[in-house]
């Protein structure tokens, strides 16, 4: 079945060029250095300016963020009342509970009414178009930006004052709750709309971890909304549970999920610093259930999802922020990059037709398996509420 997908493969040129550049001639390296000296310095200058006025001020203007002394009451540039600096909450302490909605005609109240043969037929008929997919991606992007806008306004955040890590953290908090841990080996993990990161890491690794875990959330959100669209139902905890299950029940879906997260991580950090361990762990535990070619096609599916997720992430992590992330990496990373792992990279993606077919395969097989494992999914749900 998976082999049939090879006819839909096309080159992911952008990714291939980036990786080739790392392995290739000095002229590319030179170009990279030039880019650094001009653009990085520009970015750094801006940062220095924004933190140069740290003094004894106790108040700030909620509009222009200029700082004022205790005796001042108003900002006469913006004509608004000043606020005490203590009103500014650090991004790390900002609490969020973002909601991503999807409305449909039906609203399922239990797994018995979702997991039916009629619904399996609806999935198999797959009345779903590229246009519907693009709309879902657009809505996720829009909701995240609206959430971030609210967070900025409610907490009087001045984006220019944020470190790169805080900027990415605030963006992540526009999608999911973010919690911290300071135990165990994992750098971070994603569990049901919550990212947990280990705060003992350096800021650069925290950024990588955040982007990786955020990619898991976005993939889950995309698939949940596709399933809701196919069943014409509103999104709720049941639908989310079902997709959570579909993403972990088989090595096929786990590989897609993990590979897509690694690809996103690679795009927004420096190549050579990604941690492929979770992907490799899955492969190591597999017997001969998938051939080499099938694993490559699975990676291409993950890569194609990653391109949609990158599109969403790029709405905030724009070119300037990307340069700052990479610069921070270069400054604070003591380990040399490991390009060896880049050989794992797959630089192919699916055509739009092939991509829709792969979504159909994931949902159809996953739903069919869910029908047989209703109890497992119910137990998982109980663990969440
Ligand atoms: Zn002002
Ligand atoms: Zn992962």
Overall mean pLDDT: 88
Bound molecules: zinc ion
Structural class: mainly alpha
Number of domains: 1
Terminal CA distance reads 37 Å
Order of helices and strands: EHHEEEEEHHHHEEEHHHHHHEHH
Report low-confidence residues grouped into runs of 5 or more.
Answer: 25-53
Spatial order of the strands forming the largest sheet: 3-2-6
Beta-strand share of residues: 5-15%
- What is the alpha-carbon Rg in Å? 23 Å
Could you say which overall geometry the principal axes of the C-alpha atoms support? globular
Number of helices: 14
**Helical content class:** 55-70%
Instruction: Please give the number of β-strands.
Output: 10
Salient structural properties:
single chain; 385 residues; mainly alpha; three-stranded antiparallel beta sheet; three-stranded mixed beta sheet; 14 helices; 8% strand; binds zinc ion
Short description:
The longest helix is centred in the middle third of the chain and has 29 residues, at 203-231.
Question: What features would you describe in this structure?
Answer:
This protein has one domain. Helix content is 57%, strand content 8%. α7 (203-231) crosses α9 and α8 crosses α13 (352-372). The protein has helices at residues 13-23, 26-51, 111-114, 117-125, 130-154, 164-173, 203-231, 237-248, 251-268, 277-285, 292-313, 319-332, 352-372, 374-384; strands at residues 9-11, 59-60, 67-68, 74-75, 80-81, 83-84, 177-181, 188-191, 194-198, 348-350. It starts with 8 loop residues before the first strand and ends with a helix. Bound molecules: zinc ion (2 copies). One zinc ion (ZN) binds next to α7 and α9.
